[in-house]
Amino acid sequence: MHVKLFVFLFVTFFLNSCSNSTIQDEEELPINPDQKTYIKVNNIYHDMNYHHVFNIIKSGDVFYIYGEFGVPNSINYISIAFTNEGQIFNFKYTISSYQGFMDYYCYRNYPSNFFNVDIVNLDLDSNKIKVRLRGFLYDQADNLNSFERIEVDMFFNETFTVSNPPQNFLTNIRHVNCTGQHCFNYCNAKINNRLWTARHDYSNGVFTSEDPYKIEIKFTPNTPTGIYDFNNSATVNCIKFYKFNVNTLNFEEFQVSGVLDLNYKEFHGGISNSFFGNFQLTATNPNNPNEVIQITDGKYRSFNPY
Q1: Count of Cβ atoms closer than 10 Å to residue 245 Cβ
Q2: pTM confidence score
Q3: d(Cα 73, Cα 97) in Å, to the nearest integer?
Q4: Where are the domains of the chain?
Q5: For residue 183, what pLDDT is reported?
């Protein structure tokens, strides 16, 4: 009897010890339990005790994060932009060292598909945000097979300021080959009745956003103001519409028909002009006629240097 009781007590004690040990292990290995801001690059944590300054601004439906961090002789810089729905459209990470500077970017074609943004908590009353950003950055923004890439994992638990009126702090809708106030362009529309806002203008009248769509506005320097009907065969005074294919990594052109209104031109010297107006069109996937996209309430300012 005593032997049986001893065995029972021993087994009970052993099981309890194992159970308590397991719980302790789980408690000792939490993931960021204090939810502190951290930055990890290629699985290596940066020392946040030496120097770090971050500014987060909410402007309209967009959050901008920019700042610097690092150790002596190696200060790194970031500029990030994502929507309040957690869709990224800009990430630039600059590494500085005694050798100089190296820039890395998120993939610029349909960027929200290739980089993860998780807004863990957003408190609009106290202006606080907890957000985690994870993914790859490339030395060539348009090439997933870039010679160099880095993997980042960043968590921010910070307060933010609200810009009123909203501003575009990263100026990433500036025409890339232009300087001056006339280089700030815009292209807004409703795509299938959902508001679409261009975030980038990489070339003449070519606008993209965080999603797979691309809108191209095509004029010649001598195009007069007026209303232009267009279809898929038009090459100027028209709109071209594309959707990014994540399998082929190419923008696929849709068949289009619509109306382009050029109601104002702004002359900048030589043959450089800014075009202002409105548009609407219907776009159909040539490989899937059932995919029909309605683009309405379009409004644009497009700079053309030649």
Answers
A1: 14
A2: 0.83
A3: 6
A4: 38-162, 181-304
A5: 67
Computed over every residue of the chain, the mean pLDDT equals: 86
Amino acid (one-letter) located at 44: I
Unique residue bearing structure tokens 């797979």: 212
Task: Write the Ramachandran bin of 210: left for phi over 0, alpha for psi from -120 to 50, otherwise beta.
Answer: alpha
CA angle 238, 242, 244 (to 5 degrees): 165
Q: Give DSSP secondary structure letters for 45-102.
A: E--TTTEEEEEEEEETTEEEEEEEEEETTEEEEEEEEEETTS-EEEEEEEEEETTEEE
5 exposure class (CB count in 10 Å sphere: 0-12, 13-18, 19+): exposed
User: Which pLDDT tens digit goes with each residue over 130-147?
Assistant: 999 999 999 999 999 999
For residue 257, the SS3 value is: strand
Question: What tens digit of pLDDT does each residue of 269-292 get?
Answer: 888 888 999 999 999 999 999 999
CB atoms closer than 10 angstroms to residue 190: 14
Are residues 240 and 253 in contact, defined by beta-carbon separation less than 8 angstroms? yes
Quick one: average pLDDT of 25-45? 70
Helices (H), 125-224: none
Place of tokens 């106030």: 181
Q: What's the farthest any 2 CA atoms get from each other in the chain?
A: 106
Please state whether beta strands 161-162 and 51-59 pair in parallel, antiparallel, or not at all (unpaired): parallel
DSSP 224-245: PSEEEEEETT--SSEEEEEEEE
Q: Alpha-carbon torsion 133, 134, 138, 140, what sign?
A: negative
At position 102, the amino acid (one-letter code) is M
- Residue 76: which residues within 8 A CB-CB, separation 6 or more? 46, 68, 69, 70, 93, 94, 95, 96
Give the helix ranges, DSSP H, for the chain. Answer: 2-28
CB-based contact 211:196 (threshold 8 Å)? yes
Exposure string (b/e) for 21-35, b if CB count within 10 Å is 16 or more? Answer: eeeeeeeeeeeeeee
> In this structure, which amino acid lies at residue 36?
K
